[in-house]
Amino acid sequence: MKRIGRAVAAAALALVASTAARAQDVTLDVFYAFPAFAKFHEPIAQEFMKANPKIKINFRAPAASYDEGHQAMLRQSVTNQLPDVYYSGFHLLTELVESLDKRKQLVDLGPMLAAEPEAWRKANYSDALLSLGQVNGKQSGLAFNASTPLMYFNAELVKKAGGDPDKMPDNWSDLVALAKKIREGNSDVAGLAYNIHDWPDDWLWRGMILQAGVPLLDASGKKVAFGGAVGEKALQTLRSFVSDGGMPLIDWDQSRQQFIAGKIGIFFDTPARLRQVTDLIGDRFTLKTGLFPVDDKAKGTLPTGGNAALITAKDAAKQKAAWEFIKFVTGPEAQKIVVETAGYMPTNLRAGSDEFLGPFYKANPNFRTINGQVARAAPWQGYPGGNSVRIWRTQREIINSVMRGETAPKAAIERIVSETEALMK
User: Are strands 190-193 and 264-269 parallel, antiparallel or unpaired?
Assistant: First the structure.
């Protein structure tokens, strides 16, 4: 009987131990935007799970865009169906954080970051990188992807038009003039494409405003600052892409395919698709990348696209696991995967070293170009009032009409300002 009792006790202890072991296993529910970005999210998750076998990463179906993901998060906050980790577009971060904070649904990463060794923090994150994930003085997230608009171009078409592929124009007037020459020398080729007219968010529009040395909002944060001559000139430039550069008003995915086919000389896009474009072009022509033209060299900046990783998990064990995951995805190993499979700027200080991306950059100089714009990188913030998505869709419709030649730039900028300010209220 004693033997049976001991056996039962042993079995009970084994069951308790097994249950405790299982209790330590954590599954994180993770949500991000853009299905194509599975190409780096999936391998990063696999590497993380190898290093952390007790934490499983389960991805929700990706949102079609940052705007769509943002709307989904706002709905899920009401129904308490939030993921454990979410990658928020920088331009919607403030709006989302303020909404989630009201319901106490967002984890403050400040204390978690402060608990890490100071030497580790300084080795991995600069103050500028950390600021990308801060809202109202709080560390709401950590920057995962970061990018500024990048110029891609066909070196052969540029040479044929009399341009120098090693010294591309650094202002919009000269670039449009070069695009016009490319078009005139090739009847079936467009000189330039800048697909702002159907871009899913206002990143490219902000690029045109910020490069002119003007912020989107005035000092009060309640009024648009790009009205009048500045906004009118931006719209005139956008119209010239079509009238002078022969830009086809097709959607941005079709435009990218036309560039890859050699039918567009100069093309603006996110560096996140540099790997895809490079592989598809192959040896069809010589692909090169260049810096975004800036008219105001002293004050001009560029919007920093990309996203920050947030923790919305409620459970303490999941919060702890999510912090380990976020540290990993913003670490040098994961950022190496992001850069090599996409083209983003790394958001980790150690990632560019010879231990990680150094050899890759030497062999692939087109991927290094984007790092030359870091000094101009500025926060991509939303509008006050909670209507950022609707504001861009309204602005985009007006911009589209200017590019089609249906609305004059002066009348259009007046409409953009008045309708934007109305929606900000």
Answer: parallel
Domain housing 64:
25-147+304-378
**What is the helix (H) or strand (E) element at residue 308, kind and residue range?**
strand 305-311
pLDDT digits (tens, 9 = 90+) for 328-375: 999 999 999 999 999 999 999 999 999 999 999 999 999 999 999 988
**Adjacent-strand bridge partners of 88:** 308
Verify that 155 and 253 share a domain, yes or no: yes
280-322 pLDDT, tens per residue? 999 999 999 999 999 999 999 999 999 999 999 999 999 999 9
Are 377 and 383 spatial neighbours (Cβ–Cβ below 8 Å)?
A: no
Q: Do 275 and 226 fall within a single domain?
A: yes
Do 253 and 365 fall within a single domain? Answer: no
Classify residue 345 by its DSSP letter.
Answer: B
Size of the chain in residues? 425
The predicted model scores a pTM of 0.85
Phi-psi region of 331 (alpha: psi -120 to 50; beta: other; left: phi over 0): beta
Helix, strand, coil percentages, rounded to 5, for the chain: 55, 15, 35
Q: What CATH number has the domain bearing residue 30?
A: 3.40.190.10
DSSP annotation string for 367-385? HHGGGGGGGGEE-----TT
E-strand ranges in 79-224 read: 85-89, 134-135, 138-139, 142-147, 150-154, 190-193
Residues 6+ apart with CB under 8 A from 305: 89, 90, 91, 145, 146, 147, 148, 149, 203, 270, 380
Q: For 63, which DSSP code? A: B
Is residue 10 domain-resident?
Answer: no
248 shares its domain with 315? no
**CA-CA distance, 146 to 374, in Å (whole number)?**
10
Q: Do both 392 and 402 map to the same domain? A: yes
Helix/strand/coil for 396: helix
- Look up residue 369 and give its two tokens: 């170009």
